Amino acid sequence: MNKLAKIGATALCGSLVAVASQAGELTVTGGSTATWSSNSGTKNGNPIGMASAISFSGSGELDNGTTFTMTLAHGDQASTYSGGEIVMTTPSFGTIAIDQSGGGIDRFDDMMPTAWEEVDGTSLGTGLVTVSGVKGSGHLEWGIPSTMLPDGMTAHVAWSPRASGGYVNDKSVGSSATDGVGGGYDIAISHSGLADGTNVFVGYSAIDWQNGLYKSKKKSWVAGATFAVGPATVGYQVSREMHNPISTALTEEYDNTAYGISFAVNDDLSISYGKHQSNKRVLGGTADVELDNTSLQAAYTMGGATISAAMTDADNNKYSSGTDKEATTVALSLAF
Q1: Cα–Cα distances in Å, from 15 out to 10, 12, 18, 19, 152?
Q2: What does pTM read for this prediction?
Q3: How far apart are CA 184 and CA 62, in angstroms?
């Protein structure tokens, strides 16, 4: 995102001056993007869209050298904030985050190189299900300090006391626990020091759930790598989300494979091709279906402006057999 404004501590009202002078500064960032979208196989409405997302970020430092940042994001057309986190960075124990956004293995849901967006991130709305772990619920995440890891490795451990129910306000306990979902944890590791231009990543998640007297776990894992050489970057990953149902006709797992390649034609123009294939398997095998997404993209930058375009195809869109759709999305983004 591009910086829109920086609000200094002295701009705050008098009752908050003492606190703000210790907290540092609050920065507001956002973007200026307009899109035109055309989707086949459906009755289109108004094709003109505009990004309305903004992000607030505050920072400060404690007496012991620990720094902290607060980030609050407001998603496009959202009536409330769409994600937030408070991160404490300690001198020797890494980072501790109170997270109501991504984190965990969700950071690896689609790591494939693109010129613009993820394969399912254009206007088509494919319904692709990827690994998410404890994302979607308030959780704690520990970023292990680099001094405890080999060079080039990063590692995060996330934990949620109840990995369901969405995000809640302060002094609240969320909705009642009636869905049987319990606590869960994620482990996410990446390594960029194995070879020049290579990044390898792996993640695992386990979440408790109960249906009557039956207790089980929703398990997920992801593994993959990207490799950059010259102007080209290629990537490949596999993932699986296992639901462990107790009766037929319920979803048993999503088995995904993705690959992509991006190429910087020059300093201004980039192109990419990506594919994400997802097999939805139902217990009993009566309604298995394969969702197949592909996207060809290009992005061209002219000074402070970027024009991006994507042509996206989806076979068995939203895991509905025989539902094939295509979409073209064009975007104009202005930096300021």
Answers
A1: 11, 8, 8, 9, 45
A2: 0.86
A3: 31
Is-contact 226 233, C-beta < 8 A?
A: yes
Q: Letter for the amino acid at 10?
A: T
SS3 82: coil
* Tokens linked to 302: 């002219």
Q: CB-side exposure of 105: number of CA atoms within 13 Å? A: 26
Residues belonging to the chain: 336
Q: Which of 196, 111, 117, 102 is nearest to 156 (CA)?
A: 102
Phi/psi zone of residue 103: left (φ > 0), alpha (ψ -120 to 50 degrees), beta? left
The mean of the pLDDT values for the chain is: 86
Among 260, 89, 109, which residue's Cα sits nearest to residue 188?
Answer: 109
* CA–CA separation, 103 and 7 (whole Å): 27
Q: What region, left, alpha or beta, does residue 47 occupy, with left being phi > 0 and alpha being psi -120 to 50 degrees?
A: alpha
**Angle at the Cα of 28 (from 114 to 141), degrees rounded to 5?**
65
Nearest to 168 by CA among 98, 70, 95: 98
The whole-angstrom separation of Cα 141 and Cα 104 is: 7
Tell me the per-residue pLDDT of 227-267, one tens digit each, with 9 for 90 and over: 999 999 999 999 999 988 877 778 899 999 999 999 999 99
Residue 124 CB neighbour total at 10 angstroms: 27
| 98 Cβ contact list (under 8 Å, min separation 6) | 85, 86, 87, 138, 140
What DSSP string runs through 134-171?
TTTB-EEEEE--GGGS-TTEEEEEEEESSS-SB---TT
Q: Which of 30, 42, 51, 74 is nearest to 121 (CA)?
A: 51
Both structure tokens of 291? 């969702």
